[in-house]
Design a protein that fits this description.
There is one protein chain. Helix 1 runs antiparallel to helix 2 and helix 3 packs across helix 4. The longest helix has about 35 residues. Among the domains are: about 70 residues; about 35 residues. The protein is built from six helices and no strands. The mean pLDDT is about 85. It is mainly α.
Length: about 150
């Protein structure tokens, strides 16, 4: 989901486009009503043109007022780069987790990231042994039965 500042400017642009669209429509319908209105008086079709033009003028005015009210409000402050990055990362992780193989992929990425962080330290050998044992246990867990099954689940 977009942040408040982005939503504010999207809404402002949408209102501006809507106000322009209604203004153009009001001008077109008003011109058509003026040209198509006969000198002898108004008939039913002429009343429809004039009514449509009046409605379009009212909606255009309403949209311009809404635009001015929104433009008078100050724009929300921009997000800090760290917060924006955290939100993007959270959205990406949530999207990957929804995939069928997502949780496994994320676990592998986290495992590799930890392994890279420990590279060059004395803990690498011990971490590799512990990691190998954890992978072996994860592979054995579905095959265990009896008393071992609840212990592995814990």
């Amino acid at each position: 989901m977009a942040d408040e500042r982005t939503r504010y400017f999207r809404r402002l642009g949408r209102l501006r486009r809507s106000a322009r669209r209604w203004s153009v429509l009001a001008g077109g319908l008003g011109g058509a009503a003026a040209v198509l209105t006969p000198y002898a008086g108004l008939g039913l079709p002429d009343a429809a043109w004039a009514g449509a033009a009046g409605s379009a003028v009212a909606l255009a005015a309403w949209r311009w007022i809404d635009l001015r009210v929104l433009a008078a409000q100050p724009a929300p402050p921009a997000l800090a780069p760290a917060e924006a990055a955290a939100r993007s990362r959270a959205r990406l992780v949530a999207a990957v987790e929804r995939l069928p193989v997502g949780p496994g992929v994320l676990a592998e990425v986290r495992r590799v990231r930890t392994r890279v962080a420990l590279r060059g330290t004395n803990a690498v050998k011990h971490w590799a042994r512990l990691d190998r044992a954890a992978l072996t246990l994860a592979g054995m867990a579905p095959r265990l039965t009896g008393l071992a099954e609840p212990a592995v689940l814990e």
